[in-house]
Write a structure and sequence with these properties.
Radius of gyration: 16 Å
Strand order of the largest sheet: 6-5-4-3-2-1-7-8
Mean pLDDT: 89
Structural class: alpha/beta
Shape: globular
Largest sheet: 8 strands, parallel
Length: 210
């Protein structure tokens, strides 16, 4: 029998910073987010081992990284989609599109960045700030780590454009109805569903609110 994590709104009314793995992340000073509510997605835990939550969904990725995660990640929660692993909290896959309101499940959107947004909503946040959500290949970079296999890059670019990117549009209206603001602080992001803002400006606003 599968056991699923029921997420509680412990970040109620706060801002969550979601760290994707896009090429721009290696230019962002993520260390300035220490002490804030941060979800590291996949490889971004390497830049933010202090993030409160690490989220991933690809079991192949987990097998490649689990030993390094045990050595490096200092956060409180490791979470995933469906994978039943000791020490990892699993969420039920509730389908592909839209926003899931059941706190034990999320919609998958064909990518972990989409799923992390749904997780942040379950945590009760009112604002979500996206970093590393490039949703496009930058030169020889698929992710923030350098890559040189251009054939792989071309295939990944098509996956981003055709399979992943269009699905974010299905989050716009459900998030608006819930009153959750999303700000994209990813430089040169192909994701245009939400407005672009400079991270430093967002952080200054947060300081004023506090």
């Amino acid at each position: 029998m599968k056991h699923y994590w029921t997420v509680t709104p412990e970040w109620y009314g706060e801002t969550a910073y979601l760290l994707g793995c896009g090429p721009s992340l290696n230019r962002a000073d993520v260390n300035q987010l220490q002490g804030r509510r941060v979800i590291a997605i996949n490889d971004s835990y390497l830049l933010a081992p202090w993030a409160e939550i690490l989220y991933w969904c690809d079991n192949k990725w987990w097998l490649q990284h689990k030993e390094r995660i045990a050595e490096t990640f200092r956060g409180r929660v490791i979470a995933t989609l469906e994978n039943q692993i000791d020490g990892v909290r699993a969420l039920r896959n509730a389908g592909q599109l839209g926003l899931e309101t059941d706190p034990g499940a999320i919609r998958n959107g064909s990518n972990s960045g989409y799923q992390a947004i749904n997780l942040a909503v379950h945590l009760g946040v009112k604002r979500i700030v996206l970093l590393g959500y490039d949703m496009q290949v930058n030169g020889d970079r698929l992710h923030w780590q350098p890559r040189t296999d251009m054939q792989t890059a071309q295939g990944f670019q098509r996956t981003l454009q055709v399979t992943m990117l269009p699905k974010f549009e299905y989050l716009r209206e459900p998030l608006r109805r819930l009153g959750v603001e999303v700000v994209n602080c990813t430089v040169n992001s192909a994701l245009k569903v939400w407005p672009y803002r400079i991270l430093e400006q967002v952080l200054r606003e947060e300081e004023v609110l506090v």
